[in-house]
Amino acid sequence: MDKKHEILKKFFGYDSFRQGQESLIDGILSGRDVFGIMPTGSGKSLCFQIPALIMDGITLVISPLISLMKDQVATLNQAGIHAAYLNSSLTAAQYFKALNFAKQGRYPIIYVAPERLETDGFLDFALNAKIAMVAVDEAHCVSQWGQDFRPSYLKIVEFIKRLPKRPIVSAFTATATKEVREDIIDILMLQEPVVTTTGYDRPNLYLGVQAPKDKYGALKNFVSTHQGQCGIVYCLTRKLVEEVSDRLREDGVSVTRYHAGLSDGERRQNQDDFIYDRCQVMVATNAFGMGIDKSNVRFVIHYNMPKSIEAFYQEIGRCSRDQEPGECILFYSGQDVVTNQRFIDNNQDNQELDSLTRQIVQERDRERLRKMTFYCFTNECLRDYILRYFGEYGSNYCGNCQNCNTQFEETDVTEIAKGLVGCVSSSRQRYGVNVIIDTVHGANTTKIRQYRMDENPFYGTLREVPVFRLRQVMNHMMLKNYLSVTNDEYAIVKLTGLSGQITEGSQIVMMKMAKEQERTGRENSGKKAKKGSKAGVQLSQEGEKLFEKLRVLRADIARGEGVPPYIVFSDKTLVSMCIIKPQSKVQMLSVSGIGEFKFEKYGERFLACVKEAVGEEESPEELSFEEDRLFFMDDDREEIDIEPVKAMVRPAKTEFFMTEELMEQIHYSERTSLSDFVGQINDLRDDFSMKRLTIKSVEDWLTQKGCFDIKVLNGRPRKQINEKGRAFGIEAEKKISMSGNEYEVFFYGKDAQTKIVKWLWDNRKGK
Question: Which domains does the chain have, with CATH numbers?
Answer without folding.
Answer: 3-197 (3.40.50.300), 205-389 (3.40.50.300), 408-518 (1.10.10.10), 533-623 (1.10.150.80), 660-764 (no CATH)
